[in-house]
Each structure stands twice: as C-alpha cells, then as structure tokens.
Amino acid sequence: MTHPCLSCGACCATFRVAFHWAEAQPDNPDGPPAELVVPLRRHELAMRGTESAPTRCVALAGTVGVDGHCSIYALRPSPCRALVPAWEDGQPSPQCDKARVAHGLEPLTPDTWRTIAAPG
Ligand code: SF4
Ligand code: SF4
C-alpha cells in the first residue's frame, strides 16, 4: 500500500488553509506560488479555493478518496505540514479523522501503517 495521503486529499477539501503572507512566493521561494493564494485577512493569505465553501484547494489534484493528492507538496504552507495523518507517528489526528469522515472515508488506524511498504 502507498502512503494514504496519496489516495485521499480529504483535508484539502475540508479546511480553510490560512497562513502569514510571507510564507508564499515571491517572498518565500519555497512557499506556495502567488497565483495559488488569495488575500484573507490583514497579514494573512489562504490557499485559493479554501477561503470559502465549498472548500477545495486549487493545488489538490485528483479525486478525494481515490487519487487525491497535493500537486505542490514540496511547496505546501505550514498548516498543511502541521496536519499529520492519524497514527503515522503513533498519535491520533482529529483533523485527519474529521476530514476523512466528512468525505465518507474511514479514519486511519494504527493498522493502516503496518501495511505500508518501507521505502526502498
Ligand atoms: S485527511 Fe488525513 S489521510 Fe487524508 S490527505 Fe489529509 S492527512 Fe492525509
Ligand atoms: S497546498 Fe496541498 S496539502 Fe495544502 S491544502 Fe492545498 S492541496 Fe492540500
């Protein structure tokens, strides 16, 4: 089995993704491209598509629960990096669970990670 986030994307179609403007390009070359973000509040940007309902980040590729995945993974902003999939590091993740359930997917379990092949 591959990493579950590569066939999910539920969180990217559930939550507003807001962050400080300095995280995005051009100020931060390692951040989301400027055309993929929108102004939200003073000092804050949001990933385009997450600023209002229905929520779907513009950088989300594929179909949620099938092949949904982040198309700018290496450039994703801090809220996306902070949302850890449930049990990947042995801890629950209420946001991951909430997003998956909202899209009709079963929450991840510790068993999910036992079936993932080790890299290499
Ligand atoms: S909801 Fe959980 S499993 Fe799905 S993409 Fe987000 S972190 Fe990964
Ligand atoms: S930037 Fe990537 S990880 Fe973050 S919400 Fe958008 S698609 Fe998901």
UniProtKB/TrEMBL annotation:
Pfam families to which the protein is assigned, alphabetical: CxxCxxCC
Superkingdom of this protein's organism: Bacteria
InterPro entries attached to this UniProt entry: Puta_zinc/iron-chelating_dom (IPR005358)
Protein's name in the database: Ferredoxin
Classification of source organism: Bacteria, Pseudomonadati, Pseudomonadota, Gammaproteobacteria, Lysobacterales
